[in-house]
Amino acid sequence: MKKLVAEFLGTFWLVLGGCGSAVLAAKFGGDSNPLGIGFVGVALAFGLTVLTGAYAFGHISGGNFNPAVSLGLVVGGRLPAKDLPGYVIAQVLGGALAAFVLYQIASGNPDFHLVPAALDDHSTAGAFASNGYGALSPGGYSLGAAFLCEVVMTALFLIIIMGSTHRLVPAGFAPIAIGLGLTLIHLISIPVTNTSVNPARSTAVALFAGSGAMSQLWLFWVAPAIGAVLGGLIYRWLGDEATTA
């Protein structure tokens, strides 16, 4: 139970901190206001949530905070398969509660709107920090480009996680590598999909972002899952090679 609570709280923190920075602070005061944290700030915020969350909860649950990461760690031999359903449920619920809290905070500003009033179906790119492709991609990237991006980025994220937590690597530094890795992933892929690599994060905000985000949510479960499996398999082989070298 303590592991599940840790995953719930860690995912809550990731969504509140990462998506909260995008919703509340990215364009604070307008595009020309120096107080807005912008693109780079949002990327850094996501990295910081994982870094701080891993130090806070990693010794309890492993600090996954992400269904794709948990799946990849099962494939990579780092997490018992019996733990996967509970972890995924805890992560999705933690993310959903964070999105609810974020929506309540954002709604306290009378100028807050998920999208321009003319778009009553909320089908706009990046609404409430949601993920998307095609018309809902921040940069207008196609489904194929978005799918490939999410697969590759998630696979590399798993490799970073498994590599930095390998028993031959100095202990205590893994959260730094993982947090910086997630920051870099966001710097690369925010224009493409608004960066998911985390189905719980995508689901949480899609619940509030409307029909467009919900209709495309499937990609942000399928692509990260495929990437996680690939990353787990690749590093399981690489890790065994490193151990026997």
General shape = globular
Distance between the termini: 38 Å
Q: Over all CA atoms, what is the radius of gyration?
A: 17 Å
The CATH topology comes to: Glycerol uptake facilitator protein
Give short descriptive properties of this protein:
globular; 245 residues; membrane; mainly alpha; Glycerol uptake facilitator protein
Please tell me about this protein's structure.
With 245 residues, this protein is mainly alpha-helical. 67% of the residues lie in helices and 0% in strands. It has helices at residues 2-25, 38-61, 67-75, 84-106, 143-164, 174-193, 199-209, 211-215, 219-244. The chain starts with a helix and ends with a helix.
Question: How are the SSEs ordered, and which strands pair?
Answer:
Layout (H helix, E strand, L loop, with lengths): L1 H24 L12 H24 L5 H9 L8 H23 L36 H22 L9 H20 L5 H11 L1 H5 L3 H26 L1
Short summary of the structure?
This protein has 9 helices and no strands. With 245 residues, the chain is mostly helical.
